[in-house]
Specification:
Neuraminidase, 2 domains, 4-stranded antiparallel beta sheet
Length: 398
């Protein structure tokens, strides 16, 4: 036998083995340890939860909440740790990560409400048929505010005081008050879902499916305004919703369950899914392991709800004897009662807020402020800053 031919054969074999090993390595999935993944199912109508393990590709789901309708959207408030669930045509709910203490935040958010996102102590949600985006405080108090109308919209997300939404043939963005609408990604055949990676300044958008089976996921850099496809389905896939989990994008295929790809693009990664048996996979949301609601946060969240505008202004003793109008300052302060988080604080006795002729942004206090009175903690600063006296009087129920 020719030694050179034998040597060449061995080289080819070694190269094939190395190639196979590389394919195996590249197709492995490494999950963030201790994160939680929530999936909303229709048939049955329920929320399922699984915890990740960095040593395993296994997601073992368990039903934590039974619902009265389709769970079309899931989000969470990083300040309190609550998860929020949008139930199609029914209500917006909040609950703890383990599914306990389920409460209705808002009744009837819209007949075809499909997307929800929590940002800056506000709930943003969409109605795809009414073609609107609304918002309210995370406690649901006060009337919902319509910030955008006549927009093609499904899922919604946010980043850096902006909101992004997928709908019709594009992904668009605006400020959280609805101003400055512009197109981010165009030329889609069925924009379905969006998710933002705040650490990298990147937006991911999912195209649901098109006449040519155009199911794909697009990566868009918010700083350079560049985009490219990171996933193109070779088969008929219905991408209903996407979420970010560490280095992976996790999405739900409407009829075929939970799937995963790397954020930099790849074919599908292996996931061992147990405990899920849905007729229709509607929504998905992942939460990192530092977002769990602690007992202290549970207590202070209730305190926060007790100091909102609505609860502080209907008291018969709300106004003090001094009724002189003044300029009020809205500070950003570290508050020990709220786990030393930065909060928006109106620097006036909450019983005396009707003295405010105007509210303007004040100072940032990194150290706790000692007062002889109870100030007003504000969830939605844009609702009161630089408003006229008449508007403030209405908002404060003066």
């Amino acid at each position: 036998m020719d030694k050179s031919k034998a040597s060449g054969s061995w080289v080819q074999i070694i190269m094939i083995v190395v190639g196979l090993l590389m394919m195996m390595i590249l197709s492995c999935i490494t999950l963030i340890n201790g994160a939680k993944v929530f999936v909303g199912c229709h048939g049955p109508n329920a929320i399922y939860s699984a915890e990740t393990d960095s040593n395993s590709d296994h997601l073992d789901f368990h039903q934590i909440i039974s619902l009265s309708g389709w769970p079309t959207g899931i989000s969470h408030d990083p300040h309190t740790g609550y998860i929020y669930i949008l139930v199609l045509g029914k209500e917006i709910l909040k609950a703890h990560h383990n599914g306990s203490r389920v409460e209705t935040v808002l009744d009837f958010p819209g007949t075809n409400s499909v997307g929800i996102y929590i940002q800056e102590h506000m709930i943003f949600w969409t109605d795809r048929v009414a073609r609107i985006i609304n918002r309210t405080g995370v406690d649901g108090l006060g009337s919902p505010v319509n910030i955008l109308s006549n927009v093609g919209v499904r899922r919604i997300t946010g980043h850096d005081s902006s909101i992004f939404w997928a709908g019709s043939n594009a992904v668009k963005m605006a400020a959280i008050n609805g101003s400055g609408v512009k197109t981010v990604i165009s030329g889609l055949s069925g924009a379905r879902s969006v998710s933002t990676d705040s650490t990298e300044g990147v937006l991911y958008a999912a195209n649901f499916v098109g006449p040519t089976k155009d199911a794909r996921i697009i990566r868009y850099d918010l700083e350079t305004n560049t985009q490219y496809d990171i996933y193109n389905a070779s088969i008929h896939v219905h991408i209903n919703d996407i979420t970010i989990l560490g280095d992976q994008l996790i999405f739900v295929d409407k009829a075929n369950g939970v799937k995963a790809i790397n954020k930099n693009g790849s074919s599908l990664l292996p996931l061992n899914i147990t405990g899920l048996d849905c007729d229709n996979y509607q929504s998905i949301h992942a939460i990192m392991n530092n977002s769990e609601l602690t007992n202290h946060q549970m207590m202070t969240t209730e305190m926060d709800s007790a100091t909102t505008m609505a609860s502080s202004t209907n008291d018969a003793n709300a106004l003090l004897t001094n009724t002189t109008k003044i300029l009020c300052y809205l500070n950003r302060e570290t508050v020990p009662e709220f786990n030393n988080e930065l909060r928006w604080v109106l620097n006036i006795d909450k019983r005396d807020i009707c003295r405010c002729s105007r509210v303007t942004i004040g100072k940032i206090h990194r150290m706790p402020v000692i007062r002889s009175f109870q100030p007003l903690y504000v969830r939605c600063p844009m609702d009161i800053v630089d408003k006229d006296e008449e508007t403030l009087a209405t908002l404060f129920n003066c």
